[in-house]
Amino acid sequence: MKIAIASGKGGTGKTTLATNLTAYLAEEDEVVLIDLDVEEPNSGLFIKGEFVYKEDKYKMIPEWEQDRCTPCGLCQEVCNFHAIIQLSDQIMLFSELCHSCYACSELCPTSALPMIPQKMGEMKHYRNGNLSFVESRLDIGQEQAVPLIAQTKEYIDTHFSEKMIKFFDAPPGTSCPVIEVTKDVDFVILVTEPTPFGLHDLKLAVDTMRELNRNYGVVVNRHGIGNDDVLEYCQNENIPVLAKIPNDRSIAELYSRGELVYQKVPAVKEQLIKIMDQILELKNGEAK
Amino acid sequence: MKIAFTTKGTEWDSMMDPRLGRTEFILLYDDETGEFSHYDNRAIEHTAHGAGPKTVQKLLELNPDILITGNGPGGNAAAVLKNAPLKIYIGAGEMTVKEALSAYKNGELMSF
User: ipTM for the complex?
Assistant: First the structure.
């Protein structure tokens, strides 16, 4: 079972929820936590484990071979991402704009654009008891998260059984990386805060999940600040509110020290139990 | 001498567009012939990535001697412009085209 933790707005508590939920479940069962916020992965600040495996990750980009180039300009015409431009007889490549679609390379009449691997980041795998933790991190200067997310998901699919519960910590927002993380999961937890900002971005995230036809529910974090607009919105839209995690200074203090929260704040543990019960219930309901 | 401006409109009184890659128009003025023309770049709005190189490529086709713009080129656009012969002047993002031209003539714009 695959569960993504996404948000819309950044800083609402995705990682806090992901790390606490997985650590809690790992007390009883085998669980996998995958940090796919590859531009700034930080679940590793809270989850420590024994190093298992590391792999450099590559994407394929074209390389211009001037000697073979005629230069006909077909490559820049077929590139949907403006990653290739032609200036008189020179070809310029912007590898960070390239989506590795191979169009220029395959269609070049003189094969002057062979695809070569370029390192984009690395994936690391750790283990701590029942908890397997995998995180991927983009190299500095790399702009595209999607290929690294896709390759990390492939690793998860080939290395862990389908039955294991897997939590994917998604990046914030609603753009391509979030869609890559959430497009094929069984359930998406949308974490929000009860503020106008939180509500605004929650609506965008809900629209995205509806478009993707995902099962989803909302967790309100820092409940008690702001107002009730998020709860009202969820009620009007028939969106299940899985839990309300109270706003509590001690949670912030634990977080700031890189500690897990649920062992020390009983109210958080209660909410984690509630979340899992409801996800399993919604999941089973759907199976019937 | 052919001067290009990044603009939000097609008139002398139009506002400059501070952006280069995503400029709405490129206005061209030839101060020898008085010829005044424009290129409509508004389709760039639908381009998610690579607006800089794309607009600069068009700009180089238009082949001006001077570019007057606002914020200046970003990384990718600057890479394309690096070997181009045109001179770039920035800091005219909040002016009208007319004001930008006179600021350039009075030496008030920063060269990039």
Answer: 0.71
